[in-house]
Amino acid sequence: MNESTLGGRFTFPGTSLMVRRIGYGAMQLAGPGVWGPPKDPDSAVAVLREAVAAGVNHIDTSDYYGPHATNQIIRQALHPYPAGLVIVTKLGARRPPDKSWLPAISPQELTAGVHDNLRNLGLDALDIVNYRVMGSGLGPEGGFIAEQVTVLADLRRKGLIRHIGLSNVTAKQVAEAQAITEVVCVQNHYNLAHRHDDALIDKLARQGIAYVPFFPLGGFTPLQSSTLSAVADRLGGTPMQVALAWLLQRSPNILLIPGTSTVGHLRENLAAGRLTLSSQTLAELDGIAAAVAGEALTAAGSHAGV
Ligand SMILES: NC(=O)c1ccc[n+]([C@@H]2O[C@H](COP(=O)([O-])OP(=O)(O)OC[C@H]3O[C@@H](n4cnc5c(N)ncnc54)[C@H](OP(=O)(O)O)[C@@H]3O)[C@@H](O)[C@H]2O)c1
Fold first, then answer.
1. Is 231 left (phi over 0), alpha (psi -120 to 50) or beta?
2. Positions of the chain with pLDDT lower than 50, given as ranges
3. What is the sign of the dihedral through the CA atoms of 152, 156, 161 and 167?
4. 217 lines ligand 1 (CB under 6 A)
5. Segment holding 91, helix H or strand E
6. pTM of the full structure
7. Orientation angle between helical segments 69-78 and 41-53, nearest 10 degrees
């Protein structure tokens, strides 16, 4: 698979880390509910090896997937890591035995999280660590994050982290972090139907910062839309390929980390860069988000009795 089919290249700002724009998100490799080891460890290893063999050099993970299990399978499949492979991980949550997702944001928890990632991935330093802000109930604009970003900046000075990113953040939180350290990427929820971050993407693009949408295919409930299916039929692709091609064309700072547990879906996703969407098709696809926003407004209106 050549360079152009993986969407071209992107260099994280102020770094020597250059990745192909279509990468891989490893969350789907853990067991059901992102808990425990993969249902089929051999196929998890096969997915990771096939991704790297096809040219993927950007893998997204976290030690709280599993927990530990996803990083351990990455290590089993790929260590010693090929030159140029960028593994991006994240901190900020923990998984208690009831399988819930709780914040883990004290200096001790963040530091322990870095060491968990290092140990389970088999690394001396982490290329990029995203501080993942949990929940949205932390006050206006999502709350302050300076304390946690300062801890990561200290760990960076100690050489355990090379670069810092953010996840699940507002524009205000990005600016707050940038007053403390360089931010090389932002990982938020965004896809064809969920476009809350349109302005943030453009702002980050002007600064050369990567925007890495999570749930690029819709996440646990993959995108379904008659418009998407009609466009896919017309172009000879699949709906998921069109959803990914749309993201690639949306902005040059968008990097893709679609998640899958199967080699078949992986191959399909990596081939998305072959599709080119005309301006007319892009306009048609833009209608999906407009329709979703309209439905949400109607639902909110009826709920509020307006
Ligand atoms: N920062 C955060 O808070 C955060 C949150 C969530 C995720 N993430 C990261 O973002 C990555 C991507 O998100 P995600 O994996 O949750 O969601 P996603 O990429 O939007 O979608 C994954 C889902 O789509 C299915 N799928 C994948 N390729 C497909 C295809 N070609 N055709 C049909 N179905 C397909 C997968 O099932 P199969 O396994 O059957 O293919 C899985 O159910 C994760 O892996 C993780 O690394 C980050």
1. alpha
2. 1-2, 139-140, 302-306
3. positive
4. yes
5. strand 86-91
6. 0.95
7. 60
According to DSSP, the residues that pair with 24 across neighbouring strands are 59
Q: How is residue 90 written in tokens?
A: 């994240």
Cα angle at 170 between 169 and 172, to 5 degrees? 125
CA distances from 288 to 46, 211, 215 (A): 34, 21, 16
Position in ligand 1 atom list of the atom nearest CA 268: 31
* 267 CA from centroid of ligand 1 (Å): 14
Count the alpha carbons within 13 Å of 122 in the hemisphere toward its beta carbon: 12
* Cα(118)–Cα(113) distance, integer angstroms: 9
pLDDT in tens, 228-246: 999 999 999 999 999 999 9
C-beta 60 within 6 A of ligand 1: yes
Q: Each residue of 126-147: pLDDT tens digit?
A: 999 999 999 765 544 568 999 9
- Residue at token pair 């960076």: 156
Helix then strand then coil, in percent of the chain rounded to 5, is 45, 15, 35
Decide: 257 in ligand 1 pocket, CB within 6 A: yes
pLDDT at 139: 46
What is the C-alpha separation between 90 and 93, in angstroms, rounded? 9
Active site residue 65: yes
Residues contacting 57, CB < 8 A, separation 6+ = 19, 20, 23, 82, 84, 85, 86
Q: At residue 303, what is the residue type?
A: H
CA–CA dist 74, 81 (Å, integer): 10
C-alpha 224/C-alpha 2 separation (Å) is 29
Vertex 187: Cα angle to 154 and 87 (nearest 5): 65
Residue whose entry in the numeric block shows the structure tokens 């078949």: 264
Predicted pLDDT at 294 = 72
